[in-house]
From TrEMBL:
Signal peptide: none annotated. The chain crosses the membrane at residues 21-38, 50-67, 87-106, 118-143, 164-183. Residues 14-217 form the Cytochrome b561 domain. SMART domains: B561 (SM00665). One of its GO terms (molecular function) is transmembrane ascorbate ferrireductase activity. It comes from the Eukaryota. This is ascorbate ferrireductase (transmembrane). Its cofactor is heme b. The keyword Isomerase does not apply. Its EC number is 7.2.1.3. It is a multi-pass membrane protein. The gene is CYB561D2. Its main location: membrane.
Length: 220
């Protein structure tokens, strides 16, 4: 028996709610897990995995989830507040990522090691540069009058789409980090496989694009 539009919509919202809760828990849990492993402060290098997981696993995930109608922690607040909170979290994530990049670069310099010669290093550099550009692009949404030849609706679509690409880059960089010598010697067996799944937790953070398209599809 075919599902009615109302039933299909209710199932969709329920799945997104469960997905969102899972994303909250996984992003926080993974960041705590990395912090326990790295013990930030125990060495100069230890700050790199902690800051990068904090930036791309926790802060960026929360910045995207803030717009989810089912799982946002700020559902009761206005969109203006959500936008400001999103901007603050993304800026904080970028600062953590830049600091993490600076630390690993300086650590390699101190140990006379080559820079950006692995897939993780190259992807990480690309991700940080992309996140920097994405934050600059976000200024256009805060002050749309600066972009006179672009409509606000078009800017939102482009920012949401490019933001998703940036998030996926962050996930790829985190996954490649789990193939590094430091991580594979510290985490083994089933724990390693579970860790690899963490950056790809349920994608309820696709709200600006996927949910909008879905709502348009189910409208009578």
């Amino acid at each position: 028996m075919a599902l009615t539009i109302e039933t299909e919509s209710r199932i969709y919202r329920s799945l997104r709610a469960v997905s969102g809760i899972t994303a909250h828990l996984v992003s926080l849990g993974f960041t705590i897990f990395v912090a326990v492993l790295a013990r930030p402060g125990s060495s100069l290098f230890s700050w790199h995995p902690f800051l990068m997981s904090l930036a791309f696993s926790f802060l960026m995930t929360e910045a995207l989830l803030v717009f989810s109608p089912e799982s946002s922690l700020l559902r009761a607040f206005s969109r203006k507040v959500k936008v400001r909170f999103h901007w603050a979290l993304q800026l904080l994530a970028l600062l953590c990522a830049l600091l993490g990049l600076a630390i690993i670069s300086y650590n390699k310099y101190l140990n006379d090691k080559a820079h950006f010669v692995t897939w993780h290093g190259l992807t990480g550099l690309l991700t940080v540069l992309y996140a920097s550009m994405q934050c600059i692009g976000g200024v256009a949404l805060l002050y749309p009058k600066l972009m006179k030849n672009w409509t606000l609706a078009k800017l939102k679509v482009y920012h949401a789409t490019s933001g998703l690409v940036g998030y996926l880059l962050g996930c790829a960089s985190l996954m490649l980090a789990m193939c590094s010598l430091w991580f594979t010697t510290t985490v083994t067996g089933l724990s390693w496989y579970l860790s690899v799944l963490c950056p790809f937790s349920p994608p309820s953070y696709h709200e600006p694009g996927n949910a909008y398209l879905y709502r348009k599809r189910i409208q009578p």
